[in-house]
Each structure stands twice: as structure tokens, then as C-alpha cells.
Amino acid sequence: MAPRSLAEALRARGDAALGALLRSRPDLITPVPTDLTQLATRAGTRASVVRALERLDRFTLQTAEALAVAADPAAYDELLGLMAGDAADPAVVAALPHALDTLREQALVWGGDDRLRLVRTARELLAPSPQHPSPTGLGPTVQEATAGMSPGRIQEIVTTAGLPSTHDSVSAVTALAGLFGDRRRMAALLAQAPADSLEVLERLVWGPPYGQVTADPAPRLRWLLDRGLLLPTAPGTVVLPREVALHLRRGLAHRAPEPVPPAVEAAAVHRPQVVDNTAAGQAYTALATVEELLKDWDEGGPAVLRAGGLSVRDLKRTAVALDVPEPVAAFWVELAYAAGLIASDGEADERYAATPAYDEWREQPPAERWSVLVTAWLAATRTAGLVGGRDAKDRTLSALGPGLDRSAAPEVRHRVLALLAALPEGAAPDPESVLARLRWERPLRGARPEDDLRGRLARWTLSEAELLGVTGRGALSAHGRALLGAPAAVPKDRPAESSGPGDKLPVHHHRPAPLTPLSPAEQAVASAAAARVLAPLLPEPLDHVLLQADLTAVAPGPLERPLADMLGVLADVESKGGATVYRFTPGSVRRALDSGQTASDLHAFLAAHSRTPVPQPLSYLIDDVARRHGQLRVGAASAYVRCDDDAMLGEILADKRAAGLGLRRLAPTVLAAQADPAGLLEGLRAMGFAPAAESAEGDVLITRALARRTPPRSAPEPVPDGPPVPDDTLLAAALRAIRAGDLASTTPRKPGTAPAADGELPRTGSAETLATMQAAVLTGEALWIGYVNAEGAASQRVIAPIRVEGGFVTAYDHTADEVRTFPLHRITGVAELADDAG
Length: 838
Description:
Organism: Streptomyces levis
GO molecular function: helicase activity
Distance between the termini: 19 Å
Pfam family, one: WYL
Protein name: Helicase-associated domain-containing protein
Strand order of the largest sheet: 18-19-17-16-20
Number of strands: 25
Domain Helicase XPB/Ssl2 N-terminal: 545-667
Largest sheet: 5 strands, mixed
């Protein structure tokens, strides 16, 4: 028997089909419905239907739009005619059953092929109306357009159209609709139309179907109005009836049905080995960039804005320090934040700083550090591309600030990479073809092109994947495939490099990437696999540098961490790239001496780690700075300067640049200052001296940089895109509860015992409840009860009482499929089941 409602259609489904519905529309399971009637009601709510429609691909959505302008209910052949037209497009014919199955699975359509029904809310959203035009461009039917027309005028139209007059308006409208729906008679009618009248119809046929007319229409419009080919809907407004438009369209509801998704095309093809090496090089650069960012903030980073986030000025400073554009700097800052490497310190004078997790991250092998970054990037909902834009209140969006979360970001990132994984190895996609595919998979419903967030997310994903080394030269790398859980088999013979789409490469067979993001556990396994694939491609760290006579050192590759850390103190980075150039200056050498090193330590360090002899100018520089280092001593009074060379102190007092320090001589070898010790140190260094700080005991203070760390902080949690998809355990429990509640609500009751309204609990007095329970124990009959648990949640249950004593009834609960004990005072009422109840 055909279902009479969506609830009955759901009741006829098996657990697998119901599970597929709850997976595709997880909002229906939050909270778990009490029975299938409530599930059907929830599936028809506006918010849930809108969410489901937004997740349909273009052709499936076109199918739903066609059903919205078809009869209710509609036969499959009518729907096929609207989608495939008179020409019966083979691609549409082949794709329509799958689209219809998707709509049925998601409970947007129910009924057999002879009686297809679109859920009422979906029909209201998609059907044409003057306020909300249909995406099909169709207008109202003849019956809808003539609803307010006088019977006399309807009869005039019927007569002028060549139809016999009728005795009532209903039959007249039916006859007119039949004429417009009859291809042969309609063709004969239009053959009589003036050419300029047909031009009017052609302008309206694909929508919008409404037009404006004057009080005295032109002859070409009058001819159409007299025959009902245009019908008035309001003073000065006419509409093209749906039946007329469908005839002119050859039966098509859409101008261009799109049953097949657009292909993602390759813009260039490279050797996979070149792609992997390029991506690995960029992955190493990403690690170095994040380390440089955190090193720059190691002693305390920029201040946190009052509203949260990084100021524009601080972002510019960070961009200059990293030597990248500001949008790229915002990406690295947000990535470090998403990975839990930086956070606010939470102090009164709130600043950003590295977290304790950064120290652990630095000790990991490079491939594992990269894995941490890309795993955080894939799952993050914070979107760096929005930095610098405006929010809904026209406030500037700042890096690390609020308002950057976009829940669709993880799904779009994964989908873009999955599309890249579907291409042959080494193939770089045409970005526009990727965007076209994403628009087909999730079409924009009523949104402006500039509001295409998914498109912008896709563009950002392509550029960010290149920055991170997930892709190389635009193509997905081997470790990028592994990151998606789809490792590619490396071919034995690499083809020659090519650079254009016309150069064909053989397709290497690989396991396709999953279409949906991986679970956290699955992603952890995939990320570990990606790190293993990347590790052999990363350069080995070096233990040496090349010293040059111009006071520079060249690191021909990445350096081992102790060497890099020491060299970072002793010299300043002058340029980066394939080789890093360090420059030695008096200030950098003094920095090393301040950290506790001696001149002999520095000479020994350079001799041990240089493949070239230590240049004489560098040795002279170290000795000269060391000789002058500590001659001046600065301590706390407010501050003082002491020096055994009173001539040097006289030189300082005579220098005009010392005026701001407030110096005065206390003794031949001591100067007092109004500035604090730190300011005095900086002032003297700016004058070209090399002072050293000293303790209260007169010892030189070693000013080794102390890393500033925040308290332990966890990475920011991604903002979910709606309720999460239920796992198998939750799904099984939910299905069991729904089936149980449905059994209780639909089990037949004896006459006179049914509730007054569907879903109402039975109500009986305590004495009647007890007597009925005791009788059921003797007869072994099942009962229908209403039960309220300790949390106040009401439910209906079917039980078979076993024992009644002490204010409790022990019974086999058919809805839970187990023996349970129920307090009698929580049972609202009881009713006997019909004799034929299963």
C-alpha cells in the first residue's frame, strides 16, 4: 500500500535506509526523536529543509526544483519530461534515478514512482511566487494565475482561444490548461499569432515570467491577453502561465540541466618527482618560517588588542620580519595559533607568546613538525584569508582576532585536495575548473557571486597548500596524497617533464581520496603516513658553514639545531633562500658575549664549524669587541656607570648624545644616571660603547635571552558546521530508541483506551494502574504505558508485566528489548492493547 505521509514512508524503511538519512542530515538526531512521526515532523521543518537543500549538488537540486513546479503528486514520467524535455536527453535520463534516490534518502521526496511528493516545506521554498521567483524561471499555473479573475473574463478568454464556453469557471480553467498542455493544439494556436506577439513570449519564456503593460496594451499584447497566453496578476503586470512556458521550452523546466559534474582539467603537467621535490622544499621553508616567527616572539610578542587579535601595525612588523606580504604573514600567524604553538599569555598586560607546546614541537623531526602544521591546517575553521576584511558590523577583521571562523573551511580544503588527488600524478589543475566543480557540488541558491564563500575558500586552499608544501608547482605531492589517506604508488619509470596540458602523462593508478574529511583518529594515521613519505625528501641538516672575508657566513643548507641557535646569536641573518647568509657585526658579537660566551669560546666555535679558515677580519672583530666588552659597568642606583678609565667617562659626559641619560660624575670612575639600567645600556650602546650590566655584588650579568612562554594552552577548537555526523554506536542507539518509541506509539489499543491526540500519554488513576498491572501479570498480556523518567522526559512504552510489588513493577520492556523495573508513581497511565496487536 502506498504511504499516506512521510512518517509512513519512513516507517517502511529498513535500519540501513534510516541510518543513511540520519548520516546525511545529522540535525535530525539532535536530540534523538521519540518516534518516526516526530522524525518526519523534524525533517519537514524549514531550518532543516533549507540546510538539506543547500547540501545538494546542482542536478539533484534541479530535480527538486522541477518537482516543485510539477503536479502534487507527480508521476516519474512527468518529472522525466520536465528534466529531459521532448528530446529526452540521454545524460539526464541516466542521471535522474540517482538524483531522485538522493532526494528520497534525505527525506525530501517520498512516495512511489507513480506518486512522487516533494516535502511541503521544500515545495514552498522552491515553487514560483511573485515574491520568490523559481530558479526554473517558470511562473504560476493557469489555475493559480486566474484565481482572482472574474468568471466572465475567463469565459471570454476560453472563447477567444477557440474553446467552447462552459457553465462554470472551474471547467473553463481546466479546458484552457488542457489546451496549453496539448502540444498539437498549442502549436496550431501559436501558428496564428503575429510575429511580434511571439517575440514577447520569447522574451519571457526563460524568466522572469512577469512583464509590465499599460492600461491600453499594444495590439501584439492584446492578442496574447485575449487568448490567455498572458494573464494579468496585478494592475499593470502580466505573467506567462507555466503551461505556455513549458510548451515553448519543449517541456524543459531548466534551460540547461546539468546531470554531469564539470571535469577538473589540468593546466600543466610535471614529472611527479619534480612535484615531490618542489613540495618538500616548500615544506622545509614553511617549517623555517614558523620557527622564525616564533623566534621573533620568543621573548614576548605583540600586545593583544582590547577587542582581541593583532594590530595592523604589528602584522606589518611581522610581515617585514618574515619578508613576506601581509596576507601571507597573517596565514603563518594563524597557522601557528591553530597548531597551538602561540597564544595569549593571559597577563594584565596581555601579549602573544610561544606556548610550552612549541618547545616540544621544535624537538621533533622535521617531517613530524610539518605533519603537526598541516593537520592543524586541515581541521582549522579559522580562515586567514579574511584578515583585513570587514565583519557584519563593518569592523576590521584582525589576525588572531574574533570573527575569522568559517565552519565550511575544513570541508572545502579537503574537497579541493581530493579533486587534485583525482588527477593524474604531476597534474596541476586549472583553478577555474576546480571552482566550477565546487559550484556544481554546492550551487549558490540566491546568493551573489561575490558572496561565494566556498569559492574564496577554494582559492585560499590552493595557495595555502602550495605555501605548506602539500602541493608542488600546483600539483598534489605524494605526501599530500598520503595526508588525505590516499597514498599513491610511485611509478618505477618517471616520464619526461612537461609543462603544458597538451603533454600527456600516463595515469598512475592510486587509491582515490575520500570524499569527506577523515575522523580525528583516521587523520592522525594519515598524517603519520604523510610524514614518513616526506621524511626522505627533506634535506639533511648540516654541521658546518662557509666563513667569508667580508664578515659573512654562508649556510649552504639547513643547519643542525645547536649550530643554528648559536649562529643566530653570534650573527644576523642577511638573506634567506637555498643558502642562508649570516653577517657578523659588532652588535651581534656583543650579543654573544652578553650571553656568557668568551672570545676564546667564539674562536673555537667558528674554527670547529667552518669548512673554510676563519678570516682574519672576523678574528679581529671578535677580539676588538671582547677587549672593550665590560669596560663600562652599569648597575642599579637609579643607574650608574663605573669604569677604571676615567678618561672614557669624561668622553661620555662630553658627548651630546648622552644628554638624555641625565649623567653626572660621582667619583673619578663612577657616573650616576637618571635613566634606568636597561635604558642606560641601550643609550651607551647607541653611542658606540660596549657596556655590560652588573649585579649588586659587582659581577657581570650574563644576559642570556630567556624564552617567554605562556601557561599551557590548547589549540583553538574548530567551530563545527552544524551537528556532527553520528558514529556507528550513536546511530545504532538512536535507531533503537526511535524504533522503540514508534512501536509504543503505533501499537493498537483496545477501543476507548486510545489517547485523545497523537503522542498523548495514557492517563489513569493509581488504583486503576495497579489493578491493570496485576491482572496483566496473571494473564501474561502486554500493556501500553506512559512513563516519565527521573529527568522529567516522557515516553510511551509497551511492556509485559512480570511482577508487581513494593511500589515497583518488573516487566519485559518491548521498546528497549530488556527486563526493567519501573516505579509505579512514574507511570502516568496504562491501556490494554488490542487482541490482534503484534
